Amino acid sequence: MRVMRASLLIALVAALALPSAAGAAAFTVKPLRFDVVTGPNNTTHCSVNADLYVPAGVSRAHPAAAMLATNGFGGSKSDFTDLGSSYASRGYVFLAYSGLGFGDSGCKIELDDPDWDGKAGSQLVSFLGGGKAATDGTKIDYVVHDARDHAGRARDDDPRVGMIGGSYGGQIQFAIAGIDPRVDTIIPIITWNDLTYSLAPNNTSFDHGVTYQTPGTEKYEWTSLFFGLGIVDGIQGAGADPSRNVGCPNFDNRACGSKLQMDTTGAPNDATLLFARHASVESFIGNIRIPTLLSQGQTDTLFNLQEAIATYRGLRSRHVPVRMVWRSSGHSGGGTAQ
Q1: Which residues are within 8 A (CB) of 246 and not within 5 positions of it... i.e. 6 or more apart?
Q2: What is the pLDDT of residues 156-194, one digit of tens each?
Q3: Residue 329: pLDDT above 90?
Q4: What pairing do the DSSP bridges indicate for beta strands 322-327 and 206-208?
Q5: Nearest CA-CA partner of 279 in 72, 99, 113, 39
């Protein structure tokens, strides 16, 4: 079982958020690929594999709102077969994609870093807004447009779009919304606030939220599990992008250095802290200005309640519309929602 799919919680939130329908409406599913440009200097091209769910009857004259989602760690776009179908049957355009380094998407795992995963996702927002074509030339003009983005700018490629996803697919929402004010709302489920706390916690010297100044102790089992999943995914995806397995296998080279360093010393050094925090909403929470629904698990030994509380307080202190839901289950098991 993939440890980070959060399927039950995603289904629960979807059931609560979606309008009821008398019967499932027809929809189509089209596989697409995108060339996206990523990296701190915008010099790295990555191929992204996606599925586009389109409700019957949606057209330029009758546009619909959209949803964007990507997988949890070790997953792919296929994880959204049920959820994408559910949204499409209720009239939403739904774009599900395999994140960088997963499934048949190219490039390596970058921990949901805004410079990599955030930029890749932002270009898919452009596709939903009609401003970018898929590699086969597909462009769309049937998603509702907003007059202005959340920075107050009028744009021709600004779709009405929300995001949903769990764990790794939860943090990506912050990464995209933090650089792209066209995103309208997000539902990050069982995800992190500061990845350094998640993977090497220290509960005795918080500076703010769950961010500490004195390094904590590595969660060796969790970090080893993720490396194993990532390496296997890279081998399986070698046909789509062989370069995923060059150097540090299927991870940014800094990830291998950080893993070796933590395994050797038991705690992260400054370079590891910098790498992990750059991929954490804690470091750019001031860029998140849109309505946010957080959902976190009470029995979660990976991303615990303190992480969601830190994000909640950080957003609320900046007057961002935010709500939080706790449930009994999380990465460590548990039962139904509370």
Answers
A1: none
A2: 999 999 999 999 999 999 999 999 999 999 999 999 999
A3: no
A4: unpaired
A5: 113
Per the structure, the count of domains in the chain is 1
Query: b vs e for 212-240, b when ≥16 Cβ sit within 10 Å of the residue's Cβ?
Result: beebbebbeebbebbbebbbebbeebeeb
Provide the domain limits for residue 80.
7-197+277-327
CA distances from 291 to 71, 162, 270 (A): 21, 10, 33
- Backbone phi, then psi, for 123, in 5-degree steps? -70, -25
Type of residue numbered 141: D
Within the chain, what is the greatest distance between any pair of CA atoms?
61
| Angle between helical axes of 7-17 and 81-89 (0-180°, round to 10) | 10
> Residue by residue, what is the 3-state secondary structure of 102-149?
CCCCCCCECCCCHHHHHHHHHHHHHHHCCCCCCCCCCCCCCECECCCC
Query: How many residues in the chain?
Result: 338
CATH number for 63: 3.40.50.1820
The pTM assigned to this predicted structure is 0.92
Residue 66 phi/psi, 5-degree rounding, is: -125, 160
CA 44 – CA 119 distance, rounded (Å) = 11
Residue 249 inside a domain? The answer is no
In this structure, what token pair is assigned to residue 18?
A: 């979606």
Question: What would the two tokens of residue 177 be?
Answer: 């919304």
Two tokens at 311?
């994000």
Query: Which amino acid does the sequence have at 250?
Result: N
